[in-house]
């Protein structure tokens, strides 16, 4: 599995996204498209970024009954994204259905990864509101094991959870981690952050980096620095 830096393209419009991407002339970064951009611009934004030669992680975090998720995933497979995701909370049955939907007739499919517990969910709220009577760490590990049992490729998790997930699910089970900041950079609203170098030491496979690149004075230089520190 190749280690890579995925740029979170958290822009409100196609126009802003292309102004950003046009700055990259000699490389085609792996990009993440989230709900904001996808709901604003629709599937055409995915097709256009694909046409420009980028790999795409479509971060729509599906969570519904198995049949609905299966059919939605079939639509995403036709869009030719490279990575898609869903909520592990939808159960193993839902994750299996998602994989089936995502698999094309020729047997190929995008990578499929699961969100375990959102990093915005505190242990206190998870226990009191969701009535999950366990620690956040145990829940994350259990959801990761469920994702592995369903046949998924990995999970999205905080860098601090990546080691636990690898211990429980094995090294080949992929971890995708946001919350990355340069050692000398702004933390912004992220709380539990790590540097690209530290993420490499932890053994994460992909880091998702937004503002340290998108809001940099020189985004291409920031991307190259990130690649160098993470991929070596
Ligand atoms: O700008 P920044 O580097 O904080 O962007 C991180 C990206 O990763 C954003 O798109 C954010 O929504 C996403 N993300 C996150 N924490 C999670 C899950 C996703 O920061 N737990």
SSE blueprint:
Elements: E1 4-8, H1 14-21, E2 30-34, H2 35-41, H3 43-51, E3 56-62, H4 66-78, E4 83-87, H5 91-102, E5 111-115, H6 123-128, H7 136-149, E6 154-156, H8 159-169, E7 174-177, H9 196-202, E8 206-209, H10 211-214, H11 219-231
Parallel strand pairs: 1-2, 1-8, 2-3, 3-4, 4-5, 5-6, 6-7, 7-8
Residues 8, 10, 34, 118-119, 156, 178-179, 190, 208-212 line the site of cytidine-5'-monophosphate.
Overview of the molecule:
This protein is of the alpha/beta class. The protein has one domain: TIM Barrel, CATH 3.20.20. The protein has eleven helices and eight strands. It has an eight-stranded parallel β-barrel, surrounded by seven helices. α8 (159-169) links the parallel β6 and β7 (174-177). α4 (66-78) runs parallel beside α5, α7 crosses α8 and α9 runs parallel beside α11. The longest helix is centred in the middle third of the chain and has 14 residues, at 136-149. The radius of gyration is 17 Å and the shape is globular. The mean pLDDT is 95. Bound molecules: cytidine-5'-monophosphate. The site of cytidine-5'-monophosphate has 14 residues, from β8 and α10.
Features:
232 residues; alpha/beta; TIM Barrel; eight-stranded parallel barrel; 11 helices; globular; binds cytidine-5'-monophosphate
Task: Characterize this entry briefly.
With 232 residues, the protein is of the alpha/beta class. Helices cover 45% and strands 16% of the residues.
């Amino acid at each position: 599995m190749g280690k890579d830096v995925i740029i979170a393209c958290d822009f409100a419009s196609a126009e802003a996204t292309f102004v950003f991407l046009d700055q990259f002339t000699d490389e085609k970064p792996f990009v993440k498209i989230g709900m904001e951009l996808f709901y604003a611009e629709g599937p055409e934004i995915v097709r256009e970024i694909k046409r420009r030669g980028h790999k795409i992680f479509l971060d729509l975090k599906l969570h519904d009954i198995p049949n609905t998720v299966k059919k939605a995933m079939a639509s995403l497979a036709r869009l030719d994204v490279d990575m898609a995701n869903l909520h592990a909370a939808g159960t193993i049955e839902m994750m299996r259905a998602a994989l089936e939907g995502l698999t094309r007739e020729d047997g190929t499919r995008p990578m499929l990864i699961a969100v375990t517990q959102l990093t915005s969910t505190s242990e206190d709220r998870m226990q009191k509101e969701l009535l999950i009577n366990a620690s956040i760490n145990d829940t994350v590990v259990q959801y990761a094991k469920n994702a592995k049992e369903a046949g998924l490729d990995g999970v999205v998790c905080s860098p601090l959870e990546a080691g636990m997930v690898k211990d429980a699910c094995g090294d080949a089970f992929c971890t995708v981690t946001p919350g990355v900041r340069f050692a000398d950079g702004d933390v912004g609203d992220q709380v539990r952050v790590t540097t690209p170098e530290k993420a490499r030491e932890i053994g994460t496979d992909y880091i998702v980096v937004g503002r340290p690149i998108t809001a940099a004075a020189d985004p291409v230089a920031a991307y190259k620095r990130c690649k160098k520190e993470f991929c070596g």
